[in-house]
Structures are given as structure tokens and as C-alpha cells.
Specification:
128 residues, mainly beta, 7-stranded mixed sheet, 4-stranded antiparallel sheet
Length: 128
């Protein structure tokens, strides 16, 4: 059964760091595009970062550039989001997602419909 399970969320003070993980099971991760999205109440899911295929570098939304890093370990079937210098506006539920389709169009990184499978989400709260 294809499944994604996030972990690593929590409460952190402004300026702090968190490492989110997404464990993948039921398929081989190697050929999938990966992404992280976040959502706050009353708003749609926002693309945070993604890697669409093996030949395209990572994409980051402007507000997290220089602070967040996406990574993947295909052998371990893991997807990561390393978050540093966190700000209150980073508070959201974070979701990992995968797409069986590949593309070089990084505009798709902010299109939830491009991604076919999702985790259940993990809450990140940045507050003093």
C-alpha cells in the first residue's frame, strides 16, 4: 500500500530549526517528483519546495529561500525538509507529496494537483 507519513513537527521559537521527515512505503521513490506544501486555516495549500525530476534542481518559494532545504534519500525511501531561522509566518501544517509524473516546469511546484499522493501532515508552530 502506497503511504507517506510525516514526522518532526512541533513548537519552536523564532530563529529556531526543525527537521521534517516523510517516510514513504509501498513504492520505489527513485522515479517520483517530491514536494513539501504547507497550509494554514482558511487558505489553500502553498508550495514550499520541490524536486520534480533528477535533472532539475530544487525549487523554493521566495519566503523560504536560504532558510529551508529539501532532500531525499531514495535508498531509505525518505524525504526531508530542513528548516532553519524559522519565523512565526512559517506556522502551518506541512505536507509531503509525490508525483509519478516528471517535468522541468518548476511552476508545477506550487500546483497541488500535480502531486497525486499526500501524507497526513505535521503541525509546525513558530512562537515565543
Amino acid at each position: 500500500q502506497l503511504q507517506l507519513v510525516e514526522s518532526g513537527g512541533g513548537l519552536v521559537q523564532p530563529g529556531g530549526s526543525l527537521n521534517l521527515s516523510c517516510a514513504v512505503s509501498g513504492f520505489t521513490l527513485d522515479f517520483y517528483g517530491i514536494g513539501w506544501f504547507r497550509q494554514v486555516p482558511g487558505r489553500g495549500r502553498e508550495g514550499v519546495s520541490c524536486i520534480l525530476d533528477s535533472d532539475t534542481g530544487p525549487w523554493y518559494t521566495d519566503s523560504v529561500k536560504g532558510r529551508f532545504t529539501i532532500a531525499r534519500d531514495n535508498a531509505k525511501k525518505m524525504i526531508y525538509l530542513h528548516m532553519t531561522n524559522l519565523k512565526p509566518e512559517d506556522t502551518a501544517v506541512y505536507y509531503c507529496a509525490i508525483s509519478s509524473r516528471t517535468s522541468t516546469d518548476q511552476g508545477l511546484c506550487n500546483q497541488p494537483g500535480w502531486f497525486g499522493r499526500w501524507g497526513q501532515g505535521t503541525q509546525v508552530t513558530v512562537s515565543s
